[in-house]
Amino acid sequence: MTEFSRRGLARLAAGLSIVAIGATAALAQGPTFFRIGTGGTAGTYYPVGGMIANAVSSPPNLILTAQASNGSVANINGVVSGQLESGFTQADVAAWAYTGTGLFEGKPKAEDLRLIANLYPESIHFVAAKSANVKSIADLKGKRVSLDEPGSGTLVDARIILKAFGLTEADIKPEYVKPNQAADKMRDGSLDAFVFVGGYPTSAIAELAATGGGVDIIPIMGPQVDELRKQYSFFAEDEIPAGTYKGADAAKTLAVGAQWVTSAKVSADTVYAITKALWADKTRAALDAGHAKGKMIRKETALAGAGVPLHPGAEKFYKEVGLIK
């Protein structure tokens, strides 16, 4: 064998070794898996999460999956503990977790919680039987009102709003049951009103409006709302249109955003790639076609009602597109 061929073989062997090392490193690194904690399979979070996961994934490098869960609180606990890379939550619940207030009073602050995007509004419904003749929050005084279950975000929101309008639980006849049970109680005449937080229209209220003697959506409006929004940044003004529920007039109300959160411990590169893909044309088409709430997920409102800081990866994208300076 000539000296040239020996040198050539040596170079070839060295080159193959470098390729092999690079391939081994790539295999070791593997794809990035990114779970989204959503909600129950019958709710809105789960299908929206699946729709986003499918649109944003870019196999084999980045693979997102939607995971059914018990909703906002469970998702935040999952993100904080590292059992989930991300999750959907109400903006108010995220803010309470971050500050150790509300539902998270007395618990360690979830200081690593970070925002990827605000998704769509979840409207606060104060629903009253037409027969109860309730036209304002103040009219609930002395009425039988369900505020949702203990431990729910809805209960905390309801207390905040009642207080803003000069009422406490001592001023009403409070009950603490889920909205579906409350609708049944209203139908049989044992309840005057109940509170529900979620995207409209919701089936429990729609069925009640159609078959249970009719409902009114009590407006949340007036100077009290301005004070509320100064105190609680996660509240946004909202309106439930006339006809959303049979026989019910349009009602000004408040909403909390359904938000996508992650941990500060997740890499900025990963979150940047996910945020950029979320607002890409491909995802826009999937959101518009896939679910009624998908059309409400808009880049222009991606930062609305933020109660926790932006993740640096998301912040980088929003600066690039001029949403923040």
Automatic annotation (TrEMBL):
InterPro entries: TRAP_TAXI (IPR011852)
First and last residue of the signal peptide: 1-28
Pfam family, one: NMT1_3
This protein's UniProt keywords: Signal
CDD domains membership: PBP2_TAXI_TRAP (cd13520)
Highest taxon listed in the record's lineage: Bacteria
UniProt-listed SUPFAM superfamilies: Periplasmic binding protein-like II
Protein name listed in UniProt: Immunogenic protein
